[in-house]
Every structure is written in C-alpha cells, then in structure tokens.
Write a structure and sequence with these properties.
The chain has helices spanning 31-40, 62-75, 89-98, 106-112, 115-124, 170-178, 185-192, 257-271, 300-308, 313-323, 347-350; strands at residues 21-25, 43-48, 59-60, 80-82, 132-137, 140-141, 151-155, 165-167, 204-208, 213-222, 225-236, 244-249, 276-285, 288-295, 329-330, 335-338, 356-357. 30% of the residues lie in helices and 25% in strands. The strands form 4 sheets. The protein has a 6-stranded antiparallel beta sheet, sandwiched between helices. A 5-stranded antiparallel beta sheet has the order 6-5-9-7-8, covered by helices on one side. It has a 4-stranded parallel beta sheet with strand order 3-2-1-4. It starts with 20 loop residues before the first strand and ends with a strand. β10 (213-222) and β11 (225-236) form a beta hairpin. It is globular. The protein is of the alpha+beta class and 358 residues long.
C-alpha cells in the first residue's frame, strides 16, 4: 500500500514513468508541473478552486470535484489517484478499494483524518498525548466540568497550527467558542450529496496545554521499516496563538529518536500504514514526550529549509518508495529558519550554514 499526499512541486518528476494518473491539483505551485508532466505522461487532472491561477472554467469546488472523480474513474482506467490535499483521503481510499488501485485504504484513512481519531488510538496504545477535555461541534460543547486552565482549542482536521488558541480562563473559552463558525449541514448536503459521508465534519477539541519545548520529526516508512530523517525544534510565537515562526536544527532532543521510533512503530502497525512519508510534532516537558500532531505526508516547513538548499527531499522519498533507492540526510552544521515580521520567509537571511544529502 502506497499513500502519497504531497503539497508542493517536489517529487513529481518521479511519477513520470507511471501511466494513466488522475491528479487532484489543490495549489498554484503544482500548475506548471502539471503542464510539464502532461507533455510526457498520460495525465488527467482536476483543479480545486484553491488553485487561484488555474483556468476559471476548469476549477471545481470540493463537492464538484468528488463527483468528477467518481465519474472519471468509472469510465477510464487509471494506475494511480494522486491526491494533493488530505481532505480527499477517505474518498480516494473508497475509489482505490472499489477499483483495486494502489494507495490508501479506508481503514487507514478513517483513522488519520481527524486528530480526535488518532488521539483515541494513542490512548489505546499508551502513547502519551495531552489530555482531551471535550469536543466542540456545531451542536456546541458537551462537557464543561473537567476543563483545567490553561488549555488549547484547536480544529481536528487542519494542519500547520491553523486556528489554534491558548485559553487562559473560562472567559477565553466562552469567547473562543462563540467565535467558531461551522458549515451548515444543509449546505454540505447540497454540495456533496451522498458523498457527504466521505467528508470530515468540522469539529474542535479542547485539550490540556503543556508549556514545553516543541520538536518535530519527519521520515518515511517503506514496507513496514521506519526511517526518521530529521528531528528539529519548532520555535513558536509568543502569546495565545502559538503559530510556528521558526525552525532550528539540530534538535535539543535528538537523543529521543529511539523512543520516538518505538511509539511510531506501534501506531503504524495499528492503522496498517506501511508505505508513506510521515511527520509527528511532539511537546517535551521535564523529559516527558507528548505527541500532539501527525500527518501521513511530507511536512511543508522543513521542506522550505531543504528547498532553499536545492535538495529535493520529496523526490528522494518517492524514489525510495517506488524504486527502493536508499538515501541519507547528513546535516553538517546548525541551520536556523525564521519568519519575518510579515510572516513571510526571507530566504536571504535564513540559512547560515548548509548540509548535504547522500
């Protein structure tokens, strides 16, 4: 089983030898790559409206895209469905199973679509994570009594620190809940029809806040063997919105690699994920680890670091999965990446030293 969910232009050159690919294009950086691949590949594609520079008459909203995929896959023969956003995971898994295509299966997709789902798995496997107090959905909050402050409210189906807020007291909690916006159920049914069962519903969780250091690890699992490539520290913003503003390598917690790997092995065995890129974010407090985020994808932040060094990390990972060509990243010196005051990456100032890959 091979599952790729990639957010940028890296690695796509390694699908040129695969014929009859149907690609879901979710972002502008993919547009010129689609054009290049179209020249040498039997590639079909659909553009989401998040591709702002795609031809207007070719763009579809999320619901339209699901119907389009279903129609195309039933009338054509494809070797691979190539999603570029996680929101399609469950639907893609359904199509993979129905038409016997390689890729993610519904059991795995259902386990990783929501933070709440994989936190429940963490709990069953004794993988440490911050306590969940309650869920919040369009019906409101179900449990007020056990919440201890400070805590965090965050969406269960978003990445990159989006919409996360630290709540210092009950007033913060009530205000945050009042400001939440949920899609109307009737509107969802109108857009998605019967495909609504493949859509991750909007919900938030209120979770214990651990004021510790944050590190991230990323790597690959190939035929059940885990390889961690990078462990680096995340520098969060100060205040109640802890967005990522910087990255630092090497991590202060690189010696925890073996312990991290042991937890990851248990988790992947449970969700039956045996070929995929992956990333985990971990909070560390008083030498204790708490797993806070997971994705079966290539994380975009360290790829910025690798991208500016002209090293196509994603392509090495895909080459490993498809062609079983080994690679090893060797960071030679300390690397620091920070965002400027406009929350944009300033690559002329970021990279003080380099690294090599073999």
């Amino acid at each position: 089983m091979v599952y790729f969910s990639l957010y940028g232009i890296w690695c796509l050159e390694h699908i040129k030898d695969m014929n009859n690919i149907l690609m879901v294009v979710g972002s502008d950086p993919l547009l010129h790559v689609v054009k290049d691949l179209k020249m040498s590949n039997n590639l079909d594609y659909v553009f989401l409206k998040t591709c702002y520079n795609a031809p207007l008459n070719m763009k579809k909203n999320f619901g339209e895209c699901l119907f389009y995929l279903q129609e195309k896959i039933s009338n054509n023969i494809y070797d691979y469905l190539f999603p570029t956003i996680d929101g399609f995971s469950l639907f893609i898994s359904y199509l993979n199973e129905r038409y016997n295509l390689p890729g993610i299966r519904s059991y795995t997709a259902s386990k990783i679509m929501s933070k709440f789902s994989y936190y429940q798995i963490f709990d069953s496997l004794n993988i440490p994570y911050p306590k969940i107090y309650t869920k919040v959905d369009s019906n409101g909050i179900t449990n007020y009594n056990d919440i201890k402050y400070p805590c965090i409210i965050k969406p269960t189906n978003k990445a990159g620190g989006a919409d996360i807020q630290i709540l210092l007291d009950c007033y913060d909690k009530n205000q945050a809940i009042d400001n939440l916006k949920f899609q109307n159920e009737a509107d969802l049914k109108y857009f998605f029809g019967d495909n609504i069962k493949y859509i991750q519903k909007e919900e938030f969780i209120i979770q214990g806040y651990i004021d510790g250091d944050v590190c991230s690890c990323m790597g690959i699992i190939k035929d059940g063997t885990i390889q961690i490539d990078l462990i680096f520290d995340i520098i969060p913003a100060k205040g109640i919105y802890p967005a990522e503003v910087g990255l630092h390598y090497p991590s202060k917690y690189a010696e925890l690699k073996t312990n991290i790997t042991n937890y990851i092995e248990k988790f992947f065995d449970n969700i039956k994920l045996d070929n995929s890129p992956f990333m985990f974010d971990i909070v560390i407090k008083d030498n204790q680890m708490f797993f806070i985020d997971f994705g079966a994808r290539i994380s975009s932040n360290p790829l910025l670091l690798l991208y500016y060094r002209k090293i196509n990390y994603g392509s090495y990972m895909i080459n490993k999965i498809i062609n079983d060509i080994d690679y090893k990243i060797e960071m030679k010196k300390t690397s620091l990446m920070m965002r400027n005051s406009n929350n944009a990456i300033n690559d002329s100032d970021l990279f003080k030293n380099g690294f090599d890959i073999t």
